[in-house]
Amino acid sequence: MNGTRLITKKTQADFDKMIVAGRCVAAIHTATRAAIEPGTTTRELDMIAREVLKEWGCQSSFLGYGGPSNPFPGVICTSPNSVIVHGIPGDYVLAEGDIISIDAGAIFEGWHGDAAFTMAVGDVPDDVVSLLETTERALWAGIEQAVHGNRLGDIGAAVEAVAEAGGLGVVRDYVGHGIGRQMHEAPSVPNYGRPGRGLRLKTGMALAIEPMFNLGTESSNVLDDEWTVVTADGQWSAHFEHTVLLTEAGSIVSTLPEPKLVTP
To answer: For residue 5, is it within any domain?
Structure first.
């Protein structure tokens, strides 16, 4: 998904609204996690997410995204197995041994939160377990670098190092992003890079950091629906994401049930 690209500095009042949006996203994650089991359809997960949005008084960041020519039809992205990102909720029935990524975005009073997770449906092979664990670990490695004074390359290098140690392919065609009044703002936040290079991070920024790792190569294809992104070699993919707010008090992960200060 691409959108308006603006670098914006947020105030604490802006961050307070982003925290509400982020907690709504976390609630969507909790509710959909509880419903993920063999026999559940991805459409059913989308309906659960719609109810959570109503409960929180939020709107979806995803529904209708892309404009009138090809609007995204769901409030979450549901991406099973070899789908990297942007899977459309529908008739797909989860089966024992699948994995499924849920990407959710919420808007509260004009401000966005965005986060994703991948989980197994029952038992999966050891290499798939490692894929999920490694991708999530890389997310937190990147978050640790998202502090005032660091550079974008510090985030990407930390994420990439975890992937390389695990022998995984780092998706390069899709990256993290700034976030605020728009779901996608500048800067882009790649999952690769060189320490000490790139834009300097400053208090007032908000970033969505989102590693996407594949069991196979980094290459991807887009299906005919012009949304669904799959691995080119059919290998499975994992996706984890959090929104991070660079505040005066430190960097805060806003897309958790309770916001977490990760750096003093």
So the answer is: no
Does residue 57 lie within any of the structural domains? yes
pLDDT in the model for residue 1:
58
pLDDT per position as a tens digit, 8-29: 899 999 999 999 999 999 999 9
Determine the Cα–Cα distance for residues 58 and 61; give it in Å rounded to an integer: 9
Write down the pTM of the prediction: 0.96
**Inside any domain, residue 7:** no
Could you tell me which residues are beta bridge partners of residue 251? 246
Q: Where is average pLDDT lowest: 77-81, 137-141, 260-264?
A: 260-264
Strands (E), the chain: 59-60, 76-80, 83-85, 99-108, 111-120, 169-170, 176-178, 185-189, 206-209, 212-214, 220-222, 229-231, 237-239, 242-247, 250-253, 260-261
CA–CA distance, 143 with 139 (Å, rounded to integer): 6
Q: CB-hemisphere CA count at 13 Å for 238?
A: 25
Find the CATH number of the domain harbouring 90. Answer: 3.90.230.10
Q: Say if 36 falls within a structural domain.
A: yes
Per the structure, the count of domains in the chain is 1
Torsion, Cα 20 22 25 30, to 10 degrees, reads -90
155 touches 138 (CB < 8 A) = no
Average of per-residue pLDDT values in the chain: 96
For 168, the token pair is: 């995984």
The DSSP bridge pattern shows strands 169-170 and 176-178 to be unpaired
The residue segments making up the domain with residue 72 are: 12-261
